[in-house]
Design goal:
- The protein is mostly helical.
- The protein is 58% helix and 2% strand.
- The protein has 8 helices and 2 strands; from the N terminus they run ααββαααααα.
- Strands 1-2 form a two-stranded antiparallel sheet.
- A hairpin with an 8-residue loop joins strand 1 and strand 2.
- Helix 3 (60-70) runs parallel beside helix 6.
- The relative contact order is 0.09.
Length: 245
């Protein structure tokens, strides 16, 4: 049993009989595919036509190909690379609100690396006896569906956890606001006080005598002094769920 596990872990994929140079070339093309799919906004293909805000995880395709062609090690490595690329894409050029908000190191780097490892193991096990072409295609489809479904469940669970944590934080902030409302003159977190009638007899000098700091005397800004602002025209991208448009 232990020897079988070792053989599966060491399986080098369907290109095991090829030279190291050929295998590295294939790995290089798959890395290019990962970067291209991600930054061409094709890593998660919008299939909302069949459901509300649904996506096909196309980015798993090069990871699966690495696991099939090159084995467990390269499947895991390609998953790691895909996760890193996806995470940086979510910060630089997110596809929509969901990627901007819910793609984290856990849902990208960790989950894609684990997904690549599991793909490698399942492919190595399913294809260990070199089944015929028809069975090979069926096994590959089954493994891809299993891992894609598992990733989707993990992503949804993580997103729900983030939403619940955000709601809990908002509730805590709301409770703090209720406490502050008991003292209408408390300046914690800043408060504007409105008066029913305006006393026009109040002068600037009388306000200064109350010890209220002014912006001229107190350093309340992150920068002070005179600065020149230069504006540069660049190309920007509007997200689907951007609420200000």
């Amino acid at each position: 049993m232990a020897k079988k596990k070792k053989r599966i872990l060491r399986r080098k994929g369907t290109l095991s009989n090829q030279s190291r140079e050929i295998r590295f070339i294939v790995a290089g093309f798959l890395v290019i595919a990962v970067v291209s799919l991600t930054f061409a906004q094709l890593g998660f293909l919008d299939i909302s036509a069949i459901g509300e805000q649904a996506y096909a995880i196309v980015l798993l395709l090069p990871v699966a190909l690495a696991a099939i062609l090159l084995g467990v090690f390269w499947g895991t490595a390609m998953g790691l690379i895909a996760g890193i690329v996806l995470y940086y894409h979510s910060m630089l050029l997110p596809l929509d609100y969901y990627e901007l908000t819910f793609v984290t190191p856990l849902t990208s780097i960790v989950m894609f690396t684990v997904g690549g490892f599991i793909l490698g193991l399942l492919f190595a096990f399913a294809l260990r006896n070199d089944p015929g072409p028809v069975k090979t295609v069926i096994y590959i489809c089954i493994v891809c569906v299993i891992v894609s479904f598992a990733y989707s469940i993990g992503f949804v669970v993580n997103a729900m956890g983030a939403v619940l944590a955000d709601l809990a934080a908002n509730d805590a902030a709301g409770a703090q606001d209720v406490t502050l409302s008991d003292n209408q003159t408390a300046q914690t977190n800043f408060r504007v006080i409105y008066h029913e009638t305006i006393d026009y007899a109040i002068t600037e000098e009388s306000i200064e005598k109350q010890g209220i700091p002014s912006s001229e005397k107190a350093e309340i800004y992150p920068v002070s002094g005179q600065f020149k602002i230069s504006l540069t025209k660049t190309k920007g991208y509007n997200l689907k769920a951007k609420y200000i448009f």
